TrEMBL record:
Domain spans labelled HD-GYP: 7-197, 215-400
Any Pfam family the entry gives: HD_5
Organism annotation: Tepidibacter formicigenes DSM 15518
Cross-referenced PANTHER family: 3'3'-CGAMP-SPECIFIC PHOSPHODIESTERASE 1 (PTHR43155:SF1), CYCLIC DI-GMP PHOSPHODIESTERASE PA4108-RELATED (PTHR43155)
Protein name: HD domain-containing protein
Highest taxon of source: Bacteria
Family matches, as InterPro entries: HD/PDEase_dom, HD_GYP_dom
CDD domains per UniProt: HDc
Amino acid sequence: MRINTKMEVRLDELLSSLSLALDLAENKSLDHSRRTSYISFRIADKLKVSQKIKENVYYASFLHDIGISNMPNQNSLEEIHSDLNLKKVHSDIGYKIVKNLPFDNDMSKYILYHHENYDGSGPNFIAKDDIPIGAQIIALGDYFEIAHKRKDISNKEKARMKNLIKSNKNKKFNPEIADALLELMDTDKFWLDLSINLNHEILNLITPEKVKVITMKELGQIAKAFAVIIDGKSKFTHLHSDGLADNVYMMSKYIGYDKQKSVKMKIAGYLHDIGKLAVPNKILDKPGKLTSEEFNIIKTHPYWTKLILSQVKSFRHDIAQWAGNHHEKLNGQGYPEKLRGNEITEEDQIVGICDIYQALIEDRPYRKGLEKLKALNIIKGIVDSGGFDKKIYELFKEAI
Ligand SMILES: [Fe+2]
Ligand SMILES: [Fe+2]
Ligand SMILES: [Fe+2]
């Protein structure tokens, strides 16, 4: 199959889509990051801060709670945001992840300080001008998003929220920033935008004028960081996506895909299990046998993977498919779409074979990792029952 390998990845689309993955996690609320991004951007716009600050606020909001995914305990969003120590822990983790990514430096600082209070009573005890303005804006956007009862645009709710913001002026919040939000709250549009379930579309309307496009190298760095988050979710899979991505890349080169396409395959490898962020840890980490209902929940993960990655337009016809189809089988026995035959591409199967191989050679709580040959033999069994193409399997075996 010939695929256009030239690719333009928009940073706003990518971060918005990855934020969906972060918010699907069990301890989060859906679209929390996107809604925070909307509110914070509107405040920044109202305040007439520089274009650079506006953009950093918009982008950083998508990732502001990225540190929650790798916290040892599964606290709820409300718990995390009402405990000083938990506030500090996830802000610190988030800072460490984002600081190494190819973004403007200020973004990671905004994440580090997104729970500081204006009066200095926050997790790092810094106050007023010592807190970056973008962090102060996100702090307020985040606070509003969590406190506001979604969809309720009654006068009672509006008054309650206004009182909450007013009474925290000069304490939690910079008075000028709070006033900007209060002004927004006087408009119907603000409440209506937040009350309808079209967060994606509404965000598209306010996306920064100059769309940022990232390079393949930058995309690789961001995808790898997410692979670490995905793998870190369960102690049994701590190197799964990383190892798999290496094999997918190796195999892509071996069968002669060009450099660009091989890199895209690697990215599909890094992100193939991103939908696992939506699967509760108590199921992922369950030591014994899963009930059939629990297994049904595990089986939702490639569905989420495809949905999340398809939000990036330039991923929709390749990376999202290759990653999202990794549990499909030629004989129609796979999931979640029961694709069969030529509905499943060579690329899908490469990710699928590498996934099984990787899982087999890794240690599991109930067994040691298998040797190469044993793992290959098990995959051969799947080929024999019509799951994968024999030629692709043979090439994989040679490549390994
Ligand atoms: Fe937070
Ligand atoms: Fe938050
Ligand atoms: Fe998977």
